[in-house]
Amino acid sequence: MKSTAHAFKANANRALKDDQLQQALAKAKDGFVLKRAKAFEHYPEFERLREHGKRIKDHTLAHLDHYLERFEEQVKARGGHVHWAETEQEAREIIVGICRKHKARSVTKGKTMAGEEVSLNEAIEEAGIEAVETDLGEYIIQLAKEPPSHIIAPAVHKTRQQISELFDTHHHKGALKAKLREVPELVNEARGVLRSKFLASDVGITGANFLVAETGSMFLVTNEGNGDLTHTLPPVHIAIAGIEKLVPRMEDASALLRLLARSATGQDASCYTTMVTGPKREGDPDGPEEFHIVLLDNGRTRMLGNQFREMLRCIRCGACMNHCPVYSAIGGHAYGWVYPGPMGSVLTPMFVGLDGTKDLPNACTLNGRCQSVCPVKIPLPSLLRDLRQQQFEAGLVGKSTRWGLGIWGFFARRPGLYHWASGLGMRLLGRLGRRRGRFSSLPMAGAWTGSRDFPAPQGKTFHQLWKQRKESGQ
Amino acid sequence: MTENRSSSAGKRVGLFPTCLVDLFRPSVGFATVKLLEDAGYSVDVPDGQTCCGQPAYNNGDDERARGLARQVIEAYRGYDYVVVPSGSCGGTIITHYSEMFRNDREWQDAAMELAGRTWELTRFLREVAQVESLQANYTGKVTYHDSCSGLRELNIREQPRQLLTGVTGLELREMADTDVCCGFGGTFCVKYPEISERMVSNKVENIRQTGADTLLAGDLGCLMNMAGRLQREGVPVKAYHVAEILAGIDDTPAIGEGETR
After folding, report:
1. How far apart are CA A350 and CA A337, in angstroms?
2. Which of B70, B82, B3, B100 is nearest to B43 (CA)?
3. Which whole-number Å values give the CA distances from A421 to A426, A432, B176, B186, in the listed order?
4. Is the ipTM value over 0.90, yes or no?
5. What are A369-426's pLDDT values in tens digits?
6. CA A60/CA A304 separation, integer angstroms
7. Residues of B in contact with A448 (CB under 8 A)
8. How far is B50 from chain A (nearest CA, A)?
9. Which one of A124, A213, A303, B48 has the fewest CB atoms closer than 10 angstroms to its CB?
10. Structure-derived torsion over alpha carbons of residues A457, A463, A468, A474, reported in degrees to the nearest 10
11. pTM of the entire structure?
């Protein structure tokens, strides 16, 4: 996917002024936060399980080469095909190649963020093949020709009114005059449209939530059952997954599943949890004739060798963005690439590069709420700060910040001079603001005073007053 | 006057006033001094320090941050305790200094030794000074904002509330989302003023919903941000640092209030 992260500020400011978006975000935020909190209220093991989840992932990442090979062997032993994609281009070529080989005309898709990462839909459509998203949210944004704005709720930025209008345009040619419709009505309508697509599909493409090395299985978690219809109905199933989705054993996947659903939607378990192990076997009532798994690197191995390895623990629950006050204010599209919110602000610079994503690590107050809810304890604020440090070293920090830090640092490292100069400055500012106690505007402080008053200093600095107190012998 | 059961006699506290308190609101520093002295500690403030270095650290300028950290480590050698009326600056000293020196064993040891003596004010009062009751009065309906660094890096949550129950006349009203960031975030608020404005507006709305007439918090940065927005929106809520109320210094004009209101 092409990044617009370089335009973060403009994207964010547009989002702040978008009333429909703000309405949708306000509604979504509390739901996610409350549901998650409630789920863990009845799950006292959470803290221990988090630590366990972290260890499972850390162990797997430390021995990723071993487990990847094991996984490949197991998939092959069960009659499946394993493909290695180092880049997004390779992933596209592999998948389009399989579709072509089977002379596919129509492809149904379960939601896959790895697929978004490699711009899979565009590649399939360029090859003259229809690609139909079957996750309701993903289907909605496909109609709207937009990327997802959230990793588990791709259309969370859309209001019911907007969805009614989209369905009216695409399903009824505008005949309903964009009447606001109830949720069940919209869901049933999408279900009807998608049913015929499922039945006509030549290839089903899904993501994968976990890959199990010991059995060559993959887990697929959905709430709509669309993942199952995507993988069982067409003759060919292709799954695409980042290499960090691996876990050693079945029970490790089981432990992480407990964390995933609760963290993501506040459910004990998602409505559908599907385990796929190879293609249809003899005697199986259904399932694909062929099973392919595309293991995507796309920059992940680069992260294995440094502190950003911790980010590869991510199980894509979305809790960090649900609890991020910045995400709640601007929504996912402002971040400009596949992954939004705190996890995206770490991943996007990793995948897209430091330059062109400069705002992402900075547009964060380092308040730490994301880390406190992360089911695998990723230290997101530290990683964001580390990216700021890399930006600073690479000379990517703006002149005003650099100069500001330089001047401030010059004084701050010279306490005598600092106390003298700040004493003078505060006396002046204190005198100017004494009557009203604050300023509604101040030269050079427009970024503050544009939206809030600036409290005036009390006048003398603490150090001056402390010196006075000591001299007077109190 | 404070009752306490600890053996504070003769213990020396080095107060780290924080740069914002030093520059903008010395009354918070003196309130802290009063609370510590009432608890039986002798308090001093070394000259040779200015700021903990967090602005540099959070902007990725590690070299400059380390310079300031060394300055703080040097200035506060020898005190039994170092007390900070801020979870943010406290968090920098307690949790981040040792990270800054991860490639410098000698300074990392010094950083960790300092971290072992350094306390955020309300936690110090509860857990070291073991302050049980205060003789302070404040007539008002108060809501308390949990500043993020204190809350998540230093586990400051119950301590200020426990101390506030000892203030006669004070009624605490919890706001919704009290643990959600106010949008200050150091330089964040001026780098992304529009996003910050939305965040602080949400906070102001939550404060307003409580019907409180006073806002308290343990960090001056967050307080200046929230007070500034409350005043811009014309919401009649006074903002004080929690130390000021605990020390009974409410005759000082609230943050952003002048001689004429």
Report:
1. 12
2. B82
3. 9, 17, 41, 22
4. yes
5. 999 999 999 999 999 999 999 999 999 999 989 999 999 999 999 999 999 999 999 9
6. 11
7. 189-190, 193, 228
8. 6
9. B48
10. 110
11. 0.95
